[in-house]
Amino acid sequence: MNFALVLGSGGARGFAHIGVLKVLEDYGLKPSLIVGTSIGSIIGGLYALNPDARAMALKAGSFVKNKDYLKLLSMGFKQQALLSSAKVKNVLKALFGDKTFRDCEIPFKAIATNLQTGREKVLDKGLLSIATLASSSVPGLLPPTIINEELLVDGALVNPLPIDIAVKQGFKNVIAVDLTPVFRLNKKRLKTYEILISSLNILIKSLTMQTLKRFENKASIKIIQPFMLTEHAHNMLRFDKGLEMMDLGVRAAKKMLSYLA
């Protein structure tokens, strides 16, 4: 099947993308295009460069077990940590090196937001490490990334699940991974970062639904929603739950693909 794979935003919930990729490989499904926003751009870029989900899963497992995610933080979770820009840049540089979009085995596009115009920016040229950083620069967590004099931030602000980009490229079959969680806010007193994250989740869900309504009749779109399988609202900063979230991706992908068999 000729299809495009769309990987949505969601911070640490992006571990679920790796689980989905493992299942797609098991079914012999290889995308002809990958489009990713935020964490979806990082996972998508890595897979486009080297399509080996099991190798990715092993590295992700070590990342969690060795608590390497703590290297991304300026403080620990208990201190309401924000991500360290320099540390995130170093991690992305280590992951991608000097590879560019031209080095990708599978065509790949990353989505960012131009902070000055509020418009979507599709990135498909230049260094993968810089493009994925721009696509993942969540306002309040990371500073904007400058590319060709454009001030770019997280693509989730305008297009958290960029199905439209795949459809506009001519794809009639699209598999999209939506990382939107089930909303479970029962506390009356919320910390600042919890308010920020919850607000982003609401924005992402709204934008995703708008995109689906616009393009549902223009292509066959299959949605995988790992976090609709659990009552627990996984925090986008809980990298320590990565293995659990990867498993949710496996389960959700198997559930969706079982309907296609």
Describe this structure in words.
The chain is α/β, with parallel strands linked by helices. It has eight helices and eight strands, in the order βαβαααββαββαβαβα. Strands 1, 2, 3, 4, 5, 6, 7 and 8 form an eight-stranded mixed beta sheet that branches. Strand 5 and strand 6 form a beta hairpin. Helix 1 packs parallel to helix 8 (242-258) and helix 4 (85-96) crosses helix 5 (128-135). The radius of gyration is 17 Å and the shape is globular. Mean pLDDT is 88; it is low at 75-81.
Number of helical segments? 8
Note the overall shape. globular
Query: β content, as a range?
Result: 5-15%
Distance between the termini: 13 Å
Return the average pLDDT rounded to an integer: 88
The description of the largest β-sheet is:
8 strands, mixed
Helix content: 25-40%
How many β-strand runs? 8
Sheet/helix structural class: alpha/beta
Rg, Å, rounded: 17 Å
Order of helices and strands: EHEHHHEEHEEHEHEH
Weakly predicted, low-confidence segments: 75-81
Summarize the SSE layout with pairings:
Blueprint: E1 4-7, H1 15-26, E2 33-37, H2 39-49, H3 53-65, H4 85-96, E3 108-114, E4 120-123, H5 128-135, E5 145-147, E6 150-154, H6 163-168, E7 173-177, H7 192-215, E8 220-224, H8 242-258
Parallel strand pairs: 1-2, 1-7, 2-3, 7-8
Antiparallel strand pairs: 3-4, 3-6, 5-6
